[in-house]
C-alpha cells in the first residue's frame, strides 16, 4: 500500500522490532490527518504497526489492531493527551477503538466501538 500524506512517512508506522512491517490503513491515516488539522500540531506516533512477535513482547492483545496496521498510539505535540482523547470521543462517539494512557492516546479503525482507560497504570493504580 502506498502511503500518501504530507504529514506522515511509512517509517513512522513501522514495527519497532525492525522486521519491516509498516502498513498504514488509509482510514487510520485520514483520522490522523484530521487530528493534525484540528490541533494544528504534529502527531507523533509512539507505536504503529506490530508484527505478531513484537505485539506479544509488548503485551498487546492477541487480536490487537496494531497487527493489522489499523492502530497507533500517539501524542499530539504540545496538546494534553486528555484533550486529544476527549476530541476523539466527541468526533467518533459510536465507532473506532479509543484508548487513554498516561501521556498518549490510542486510536484504531476497527469496525465497532471500543473504549478503555489505562491512565494511572504507570503509577501502579
Helix/strand layout:
Blueprint: H1 10-13, H2 26-39, E1 43-47, H3 52-57, E2 71-76, H4 81-91, E3 97-101, E4 104-108, E5 114-117
Parallel strand pairs: 3-5
Antiparallel strand pairs: 1-2, 2-4, 3-4
How would you describe the overall organization of this protein?
With 125 residues, the chain is α+β, with helices and mostly antiparallel strands. The protein has one domain: Muramoyl-pentapeptide Carboxypeptidase, domain 2. The chain is built from four helices and five strands. A five-stranded mixed β-sheet has the order 1-2-4-3-5. A hairpin with a 2-residue loop joins strand 3 and strand 4. 28% of the residues are buried. The mean pLDDT is 93.
Compute the separation of the termini in Å: 41 Å
Strand order of the main beta sheet, please? Answer: 1-2-4-3-5
Largest sheet: 5 strands, mixed
* Class of secondary structure makeup: alpha+beta
Q: Class in CATH? A: Alpha Beta
Number of helices: 4
Order of helices and strands: HHEHEHEEE
Short description:
With 125 residues, this protein is of the alpha+beta class. The protein has helices spanning 10-13, 26-39, 52-57, 81-91; strands at 43-47, 71-76, 97-101, 104-108, 114-117.
List keywords for this structure.
five-stranded mixed sheet, alpha+beta, 4 helices, globular, 28% helix, Muramoyl-pentapeptide Carboxypeptidase, domain 2, single chain, 125 residues, 20% strand, 5 strands
Amino acid at each position: 500500500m502506498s502511503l500518501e500524506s504530507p504529514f506522515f512517512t511509512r517509517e513512522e508506522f513501522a514495527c519497532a522490532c525492525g522486521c519491516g512491517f509498516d502498513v498504514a490503513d488509509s482510514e487510520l491515516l485520514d483520522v490522523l490527518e484530521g487530528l493534525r488539522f484540528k490541533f494544528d500540531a504534529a502527531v507523533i506516533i509512539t507505536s504503529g504497526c506490530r508484527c505478531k512477535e513484537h505485539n506479544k513482547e509488548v503485551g498487546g492483545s492477541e487480536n490487537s489492531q496494531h497487527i493489522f496496521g489499523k492502530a497507533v498510539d500517539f501524542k499530539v505535540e504540545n496538546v494534553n493527551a486528555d484533550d486529544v482523547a476527549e476530541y476523539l470521543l466527541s468526533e467518533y462517539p459510536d465507532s473506532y477503538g479509543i484508548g487513554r494512557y498516561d501521556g498518549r492516546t490510542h486510536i484504531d479503525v476497527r469496525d465497532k466501538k471500543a473504549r478503555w482507560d489505562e491512565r494511572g497504570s504507570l503509577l501502579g493504580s
